Amino acid sequence: MISLSRRQGIFFLLAAMLLLLPVAGVWLAGYPVARYLEFPPRTRYVVPAPFSWPVFLGFLAFGLAVLFPILLRLWRVRKGGDRPLPGRFPWWGWLGVVLGAGSWFLAWTRFPWFAPWQPHTFTPLWLAYVLVVNALVYRRTGGCLMTSRPRYFLSLFAWSAGFWWFFEYLNRFVQNWYYPAVRDFSGLEYFVFATLPFSTVLPAVLRIGKTNAVLREKAREEHEKKPGRKPILPQKNTPAQRISDHNPGGLGGVVGGNRGKAPSGSGILPPLPRPSPPLLYHQGGRGG
């Protein structure tokens, strides 16, 4: 077991690397540091590469390779038959279903009366997703993080906001994405409007992990119920876990090694869903 003080030391060391190594790379490359620290980020100083079919097909093949074993597992579980669920779908799960359906409908329509709130539909969509996935785990196991550890669950929203601001900071050096409406925002508006969607990332991602764990356990139980089947041992190190290992040296080279080209962010950002707040993508600025 790693002691608390050692974990804190590792955390602050990694945080310092995230903050300082990209700046060091900019400075060593001879670029103006202030350009990369503009807030809100309005200046476009990276020219993106054109669309590439080989790159697109490569990412598509990678995505299918990741999804195929998950879909195969779900199909095998369904084929083996479902056991009775220990509980009912909770009322707040149905609230999430209604909230998600309503937010999705309003996000993809253009009613004049809803125009001022149109850019703000991202956050309720993800909140609805968090509610529904927690409800599914609750129905399957009789409990979930939202009900068993509510304080920890709520703290994930604050941690998630800070967690994703780190990625926004790293993106300043590579500009893998940008928000057109930022040019209409003050620094405070940009911070507030972006923090709300960023706060939903970790609660959603952790629920994905819990749901996957529940499905694995269910598949293991169904497998071991059949005569002559050996127990399935849990995997200690999966390919997905190995993919998420990163080389910290890449943080210092994201700019220095890409003079005259669009810097690459590969090796920096982990395979997590990236939020794209409609408010920041909205061309009309303040909800116009």
Biggest beta-sheet profile: none
Find the structural class using helix and strand composition: mainly alpha
Please give the radius of gyration in angstroms.
22 Å
Distance between the termini: 53 Å
Residues in helices, as a percent range: 55-70%
Beta strands, count: 0
For the residues shown, what is the average pLDDT? Answer: 76
Share in β-strands: under 5%
Report the principal-axis shape: globular
Helical element count? 12
Order of helices and strands: HHHHHHHHHHHH
Poorly predicted spans = 239-252, 256-278, 281-288
List keywords for this structure.
288 residues, mainly alpha, globular, disordered C terminus
Describe the 3D structure.
Helix 1 runs parallel beside helix 7, helix 4 packs antiparallel against helix 5 and helix 7 packs across helix 8. The protein has 288 residues and is an all-alpha fold. It contains 12 helices and no strands. Helices cover 61% and strands 0% of the residues. It has a domain of 140 residues. The longest helix has 28 residues. 20% of the residues are buried. The chain starts with a helix and ends in a 7-residue tail after the last helix. The C terminus is likely disordered.
Write the layout of secondary structure elements.
Elements: H1 4-29, H2 33-36, H3 53-80, H4 91-108, H5 122-141, H6 145-148, H7 150-174, H8 187-198, H9 201-225, H10 239-243, H11 249-252, H12 278-281
Helix pairs in contact: 1-7, 3-9, 4-5, 5-9, 7-8
